[in-house]
């Protein structure tokens, strides 16, 4: 389980504060979804911020809105977002908002309903609140540390599937074209959709049994969804089984494996050799 508060602190005060912030954050994410839908399938500007990485007017508008709505300067909140330069001030802050204004920007720009708004709150490096919202279909995932995860108000539970045979695994379409993950997980059924945060939440909801990527991911992709998944009983790690550590100086991770408790280990064991070979050739 996630450890939220350092020993020696008044935990009751922290709990009250988190519940107050949760209501504000939920409304902000819902409003951000409405902003996203004013751009979705409309004409808007988009450009490459780096090779293969696009950003749109909607990303920038939502990023600015969420920063204004969420950050409490008097409380010393930190901020980490895909669309804001990282000045590392967050490393000295106890509370840090981790945001991807549109996760799955390429799908969003293509008019595909496979994108989300992802907002997580970290306290002492641990996720305590997580919101992942797909405004195109209304899927609203949320989690509070120690209180479970929900989809549109209904409790979530990851699956208890143990075997990869017949398991439903969700992966990235573009990555699967180059990795051919089916070669490493024979018998599994692979599905591809957009938005990393969305994929993790769908595993939390039991719509898929597991998720795998060997690509580099960032805190803003996963901070909210990690909490949703773990509060639904799922597990997540790096492809070599190491825990996910958030709000480090370099906020990225070399791949992820996620799933229910039994399947997570099965994916780790089945793909370990191939992943080790890949790392050896990087």
UniProtKB/TrEMBL annotation:
Mg(2+) binds at residues 82, 100, 102-103, 221. Keywords: Magnesium, Metal-binding. GO terms for molecular function: inositol monophosphate 1-phosphatase activity; metal ion binding. PROSITE patterns: IMP_2. One of its GO terms (biological process) is phosphatidylinositol phosphate biosynthetic process. Coiled coil: none annotated. Its cofactor is Mg(2+). InterPro entries: Inositol_monophosphatase-like, Inositol_monophosphatase_CS. It comes from the Bacteria. Belongs to the inositol monophosphatase superfamily. PANTHER family: INOSITOL MONOPHOSPHATASE, INOSITOL-1-MONOPHOSPHATASE-RELATED. This is 3'(2'),5'-bisphosphate nucleotidase. The lineage of its organism: Bacteria, Pseudomonadati, Pseudomonadota, Alphaproteobacteria, Geminicoccales.
């Amino acid at each position: 389980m996630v450890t939220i508060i350092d020993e020696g602190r008044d935990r009751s005060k922290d709990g009250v504060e988190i519940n107050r912030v949760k209501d504000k954050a939920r409304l902000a994410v819902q409003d951000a979804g409405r902003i996203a839908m004013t751009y979705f399938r409309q004409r808007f500007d988009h450009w490459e911020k780096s090779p293969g990485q696009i950003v749109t007017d909607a990303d920038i508008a939502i990023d600015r809105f969420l920063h204004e709505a969420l950050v409490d300067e008097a409380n010393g909140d930190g901020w980490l977002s895909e669309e804001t330069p990282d000045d590392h001030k967050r490393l000295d802050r106890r509370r840090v908002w981790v945001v991807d204004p549109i996760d799955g920007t390429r799908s969003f720009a293509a008019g595909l309903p496979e994108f989300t708004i992802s907002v997580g709150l970290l306290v002492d490096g641990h996720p305590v609140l997580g919101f992942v919202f797909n405004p195109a279909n209304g899927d609203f995932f949320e989690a509070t540390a120690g209180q479970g995860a929900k989809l549109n108000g209904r409790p979530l539970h990851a699956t208890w599937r143990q075997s990869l045979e017949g398991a439903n695994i969700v992966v990235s379409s573009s990555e699967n074209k180059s990795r051919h993950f089916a070669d490493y997980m024979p018998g599994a059924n692979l599905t591809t959709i957009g938005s990393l945060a969305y994929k993790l939440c769908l595993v939390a909801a039991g719509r898929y049994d597991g998720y795998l990527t060997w690509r580099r991911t960032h805190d803003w992709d996963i901070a909210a969804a990690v909490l949703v998944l773990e509060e639904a009983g799922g597990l997540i790690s790096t492809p070599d089984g190491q825990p996910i550590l958030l709000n480090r100086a370099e906020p990225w991770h070399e791949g992820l494996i996620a799933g229910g408790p039994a399947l997570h280990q099965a994916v780790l064991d089945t793909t370990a050799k191939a992943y080790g070979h890949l790392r050896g050739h990087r």
